[in-house]
Every structure is written in C-alpha cells, then in structure tokens.
Design goal:
Layout (H helix, E strand, L loop, with lengths): L1 H5 L15 E5 L5 E5 L4 E3 L9 E3 L7 E5 L5 E5 L4 E3 L8 E3 L17 H5 L8 E5 L4 H12 L3 E5 L3 H14 L1
Parallel strand pairs: 9-10
Antiparallel strand pairs: 1-2, 2-3, 4-8, 5-6, 6-7
Length: 172
C-alpha cells in the first residue's frame, strides 16, 4: 500500500479499484484471481486490499457459461446476444477471507430462537425438538416451523404436544 501511495496510485474512490495493468478474472468454479499484465503474474489476493474473493450465486437470467476449443471459459448473454470473457457475476463478489474467531458473543441469554434463525430457510429439513410442548423447546420448535422446517415434537405428554402443535399452527 505504501508503494501505491508513493506512486500516486492510491487516490481512488474505491479500495477495490485495481491499479493500472491489473485485471480481475474468475476460475471455472467461481474463485476470483488477479492478473498483473505488467509483471505477467497472477495472484489470489487483491493487490490493494489483500482480500480473497469468490463470485456469489448463479449466473444472471439468460446467461450461460461455455468453454472454447482452447479450454478458455466465456459467457454468453442470450438476451442481448453478446459474448464476453468477463464473468458477469464479478459485480457481486463476496470476501472469502477466513475470519479469526472473536471472543465477543453474538448471542446472549436474552436472544430468542427467532433472532438466531433470522434470514435462514429450513425448507426440506427435518428437526426433532425434545421438550417441545413448553419453554425453550416450544420456542425452538415454533421458530424452526416458522422458518420452513418439518418439526417433530418429542414430548412425554401427547395432549400437551397436540396443544403445542395447535399454538404453532395458529401463529403460522
């Protein structure tokens, strides 16, 4: 970074902007790498930030990934009838740096099951919850059910289990 600052190349609006002579590319399986055309080298880390990235998700609607006779990957935009060697998902890369575990807890004793499961989809998953007719077991079962899971309530009392199922279905 100090060398870029010395050369006057760090004056940019974005930390992800590449220095002159660099190009961002992707592998067949979505890993981002950087080509330095000046030194004719490649590397996995971004030349300014040092971060590793990968593309997120599938190709946009109407796009297809192909390989030419030389093994070079290219992308076909069937909607606009264009072909490019640049992965259209590069605009939506995500950092892939392993993070060190922090000592700070994400959740505490007052965190609810709904807060922990927020944004997650359990459709097609089967969950068995013991003690699901009351307390923490009930809240856990309800949260999984509201997030799409098929929940099996494991309870000692069949009448209380049926009552718990009814309460969950009322909220659903």
């Amino acid at each position: 970074m100090a060398a870029l600052r010395y050369a006057g190349l760090d004056d940019t609006d974005s930390e992800d902007e590449l220095p002159p002579g660099w190009e961002e590319r992707t592998t067949k399986d979505g890993w981002v790498y950087y080509a330095n055309h000046t030194e004719e080298k490649t590397q996995w880390e971004h030349p300014k930030t040092g971060k590793r990235k990968r593309v997120a998700g599938d190709l946009p609607y109407g796009w297809e990934q192909e390989t030419d006779e030389n093994g070079q990957v290219f992308f076909v935009d069937h909607i606009n009838k264009r072909t490019t060697y640049v992965d259209p998902r590069l605009a939506f890369t995500v950092d892939d740096n392993p993070t060190k575990p922090t000592t700070q807890q994400r959740y505490d004793g007052s965190t609810t099951a709904m807060e922990i499961l927020q944004g997650r989809d359990f459709t097609g998953k089967v969950v068995v919850v013991t003690g699901a007719n009351s307390g923490i077991g009930f809240e856990t079962a309800k949260s999984f059910a509201l997030h799409g899971a098929h929940v099996i309530l494991a309870c000692r009392n069949m009448a209380r289990a049926s009552e718990a199922v009814s309460r969950i279905l009322e909220e659903w």
